[in-house]
Design a protein that fits this description.
Elements lengths: L1 E5 L3 H13 L3 H4 L5 E5 L10 E10 L2 H7 L15 E2 L3 E9 L11 E4 L15 H4 L33 E5 L3 E3 L6 H4 L2 H13 L7 E5 L3 H12 L5 E6 L2 H9 L4 E4 L5 H9 L3 E3 L7 E3 L2 E6 L4 H10 E9 L12 H5 L3 E4 L5 E4 L2 E4 H10 L9 E5 L4 H9 L1 H4 L3 E4 L8
Parallel strand pairs: 9-10, 9-14, 10-11, 14-15, 15-16, 19-20
Antiparallel strand pairs: 1-2, 1-4, 3-5, 3-7, 3-20, 5-6, 6-8, 12-13, 17-18
Helix pairs in contact: 6-7, 6-12
Amino acid sequence: MKAVQFDLNIPKYAISKAMGKVNPSLYVNSPLSCLQLRDVEPPPLPNEHWVEVKVKYGGICGSDLNLISLKDSPATSPFISFPFTMGHEIVGTISKTGKLVKGHHVGERVVIDPLLACSVRGIDPLCPECKKGNYHLCHHMNDGTISPGLLTGTCKDTGGGWGNYIVAHESQVIKLPDNVSNTNGVLVEPFSCALHTVMQNPPKQSDIVLVIGAGVIGICLIAALRALNYSCNIVVLVKYPFQGELASQFGADEVIYISRGKDYLSNAAQSMNAHVLHPIFGEPIVHGGADIVYECVGNKKSLHDAIRFTRKGGKLVLLGLASFIENLDMTMIWLNELEIKGSFTYSTEMYHGQQKRTLQIAVDLMKEGKVDLSPLVTHCFSLENYREAIAAATNKKKENTMKVIFEPKSNHSQ
């Protein structure tokens, strides 16, 4: 089968890193790139509790682009096994089941919860976090019966959404209802990241909420707030007009464009009943601000804005990309006694009195008509055109890009 794989060795990494700094396209377009389209064997079922899934769509995530451009922190490398087929946003159809799989059958349309925690790895007893349902904080993501990997799409044994077939443990498989489209299905995973953030860090109904960033995660964050019936006032900072239109469509009350000069600072402050103050030298600060800020980008500018737009005693939630941030002024964290919380993927949440997987809640909300994310899918490519797909995902302004997906064509007979 065809698969877009990431393989890493130190010489290749060093050469690619150097070339990519001169010409970013060389992260993908060089023979020495860590990313290659290959012919590989479909991954076998690790045991009889696993299923094989024929991929219909596999999404490109911002974290995938971060990895391809070699910006990821080495801190995550113990939780990855090479070479791996990329892609953790997956919708498809079960094509094979192990003999001990219960509740799922061949032909069933499904989405995959990609986290590879204790149950998936055959570890018993479960670690303390998995016992509590916090399997995103599993202690054993580099142990057990499969190779290291935080997610499907970072483990060499599972395959990924940028290939024809993946394998998944039965606990990872979530049935997709008939009235939920495949384009919504491929967005269940990023929507679940936003749902987890909101459900673990909920605003009050009277709060002023600031969402920084209007890419897929930022829009999903707005959609999650409205799907969960929060009536809080939502202000969003965006870069491009097409993002602003979607932010309004999904429920933002006010859209502030950061690309329209430094004016955005005073405009955003005014929208949150805050004031801009000017130090003797250096960047302006904001007095007042949002009750809760959801930071959905993860670069120096967005983090700087997140810190200064959070009111005294307010809360800042970080769900943008993890990265190295140099020379970030943290004075206002100290001065304003801010509460800062990280948010990583999804797990289980209390929903209508029951503990449910976040991805199941996402599917339920789609089934109930509370959210339709299909307008976010703007581009679809074959695996053979992976370079063009990555270029479209990277050049958001030029392509008016939101979500780019692959549609792999099967070349594996059952």
